[in-house]
Amino acid sequence: MKKVKLIYNSGAGQSKFTYFLDTIIEKFMANDIEVLIYRAGERDNLEEFLKDSDNENLYGIIAAGGDGTLNRVVNIMMKYSIKTPLGVIPAGTSNDFAKHINMPNNFYECIDKILANNVKPIDVGKANDKYFINVCSAGLFTNSSQKADKNLKKALGKLSYFITGAKELFKFRPFSVKIETDEELFLEKINLFLIFNGSSVGGMTYFTSDSSIQDGLLDLVIIKNCSLHELGGLVANIMAGRSFDDKNVIYKKTKTISIQKLKGNCDKPDVDGDEGPDFPLEVTCIENGINMFL
Ligand SMILES: [Mg+2]
């Protein structure tokens, strides 16, 4: 009998996942797949549970949680070169990646999709020693998910990020960076930068509409220092899905990016919604890093 390793984060978001657990196990077993369950939490040993997962008897690794849970699983899989397919069930506060690969919101339909066994290699981003599947970023608004109060997050879900972000706006100061891509060098005073593996962030799917998690490239978006008024117009344009042609925006596709902070204050970069490594940053796209149920 084949097996799946199912990791779920019981504390994730406003999830009702645990109520469905028994039925989900039943569904796998009806398809002759045994389920090994791991409850991820603050003091677990997920690495121990996953590190020997590169074997033929394993049908897949399933992460039921948000982007944070997925990021943890991906980091362990990359560390141990695990090529067993990874499936994702959107059961967190922020499920940007699952949304990007069109996983259904309905848990049972997710299992159907995983059982259809459509496995494809996808890219993984690497920022210094930390892997990311969605985005690596720093500057204004970018670490609201880290900073949002736990209770606020539980009560309001993603709205808590916007509230936290809005509070930050008034004390934010731009910072100076040196950014090098495969082909260019930028010396700029900026509000923020975002490096996408090719997926959406914060629901802003329009942001990089032609980007892909299978093109071997990262999408770099730099928002330069600009007035609050200009920033407002910029955000409105992005939300409306209008073109990305703005004098305050630099947008490049590249395989590698190095970022040095030159002057000013900026919190540690954010990686998939959690605190990432500090500057200077060396970011690369690892082509076909993991296999995924799509
Ligand atoms: Mg890409």
Structure characterization notes:
The protein has 294 residues and is α+β, with helices and mostly antiparallel strands. The chain folds into 2 domains: 2-117, 3-Layer(aba) Sandwich (Rossmann fold), CATH 3.40.50; 130-288, Tumour Suppressor Smad4 (Sandwich), CATH 2.60.200.40. The chain is built from 9 helices and 15 strands. Strands 5, 6, 7, 8, 9, 10, 11, 12, 13, 14 and 15 form an 11-stranded antiparallel β-sheet that branches. Strands 2-1-3-4 form a 4-stranded parallel β-sheet, sandwiched between helices. A hairpin with a 2-residue loop joins strand 5 and strand 6. Helix 1 packs parallel to helix 5 (107-115). The two termini are 23 Å apart. The mean pLDDT is 87. Bound molecules: magnesium ion.
Question: What descriptive keywords fit this protein?
Answer:
294 residues, alpha+beta, Rossmann fold, Tumour Suppressor Smad4, 2 domains, eleven-stranded antiparallel beta sheet, four-stranded parallel beta sheet, 15 strands, binds magnesium ion
